Amino acid sequence: MTTKKRALIFIGGAGPTFDLCKPFLDKPDLVIAADSGLLRCEAFGFSPDWIVGDMDSLGDLSRLSSYPKDRVLQYPVDKDYTDTELALNLAWDQGCTDITLIGGGGGRTDHLLAITALFDRPRAPNRWCTETELVSLVDHELTLSLPTDTLVSVFPAGSGPWDADSRGLQWPLRGLSWFRGFFGLSNRVTTSPCSVYACAGRFLVMVPLEAFLEIS
């Protein structure tokens, strides 16, 4: 059985508190800070293995001096990839197959949409802890233990066709017609654990992070 190599990527912008995303921080094999994501990375008690980006939002660059120079990959501001893309490519180059993004909310809407668009690519992150939600990419099955009445929203991702099924949700996903621009918003958990199945294509499933506090 192949063991997945797990990476945490801390990115700039608004993000969750430590307590909200604690269930997704356990024992990473690799920690990467993208630009000002370094601030949250350090605040969460991690020392990053790599720091990447143009550092235009980091502020005090002197804090980089406490890390080995060969682990700080600084790029020009004018470049072909976002800091998040650079961090993702580095994680994949290091052999990681399970990647969690942390942060990236607030600020410019184009930055937010750019992160969301990453999940449409053939090679994509596995999950994203925003300021208040967990966004999970489902290409087969996602099963979560969540309190009753937790909101669950589902969006098609990547290329179609799409087909989905579910268990433990108030409004079943089976038989729905999915296409670009379609979504299932504010479904509710009726039975825990609940599951979303990607029978064809891939889906993004969004649930509030605070729901995991209620079951911890």
From TrEMBL:
Domain Thiamin pyrophosphokinase catalytic: start-end pairs: 24-117
EC code(s) of this entry: 2.7.6.2
Gene3D superfamilies linked: Thiamin pyrophosphokinase, catalytic domain
UniProt-listed InterPro entries: Thi_PPkinase (IPR006282), TPK (IPR053149), TPK_B1-bd_sf (IPR036371), TPK_catalytic (IPR007371), TPK_catalytic_sf (IPR036759)
Biological processes, Gene Ontology terms: thiamine diphosphate biosynthetic process; thiamine metabolic process
Alphabetical UniProt keywords: ATP-binding, Kinase, Nucleotide-binding, Transferase
CDD domains: TPK (cd07995)
Domain of life from the UniProt record: Bacteria
GO MF, any single term: kinase activity
Protein name, entry field: Thiamine diphosphokinase
Organism: Gracilinema caldarium (strain ATCC 51460 / DSM 7334 / H1) (Treponema caldarium)
